Amino acid sequence: MSYSNLYNLLQYNKKLFLVWSTFIFVTGCKSPQCFIANMSGTWKGKTSGEAVSFEQWNISDWKCESYGSAWIIEESDTVFQEKFELIAKEWGYEYCAHPNMTMNPTCFRLHKVRRNYLEVNNFQHDFPQVIIYHIQGNEVHITLKGENENHEKIEESYSLFRQPH
Questions:
Q1: pTM for this model (two decimals)
Q2: Which residues contact 20 (CB under 8 A, 6 or more apart)?
Q3: CA-based angle 90:36:97, to the nearest 5?
Q4: 119 vs 104, which has greater pLDDT?
Q5: For 124-142, how does the pLDDT look when each residue is reduced to its tens digit (9 = 90+)?
Q6: Which residues contact 46 (CB under 8 A, 6 or more apart)?
């Protein structure tokens, strides 16, 4: 291959890269990896009453999965604790929660993902049946949806704020 052919090939690839990266930027990343990277870190916010809720998201070594923990502190006591993971399966992604550190997780299938949005569902679970994370800047809005035993719709929402490293 001559130098001029190599130069033309590199110029073509540079243009192709610019077009492709502009497309990704404009349309937004719709992969779990983008959401995981955006959610990575520690988040904190008030829940009901005087309780304070925390979530810690960590990127796995594979970069396409995440694991972490959530806990609620009320009057210096930890009143709730769970570990969670967003993991790749053969059919897609699952968000699995281990409330109160149980060995048997409750898993939710990935329904929709974008850079700033994650929605998972498990309609066989009592509550929640749908979990939504919506990141806006340094704030994440978390919504839990479902039905009670009388088939009445329930929706709980709260916000957490990104904490400095």
A1: 0.80
A2: none
A3: 65
A4: 119
A5: 999 999 999 999 999 999 9
A6: 52, 53, 158
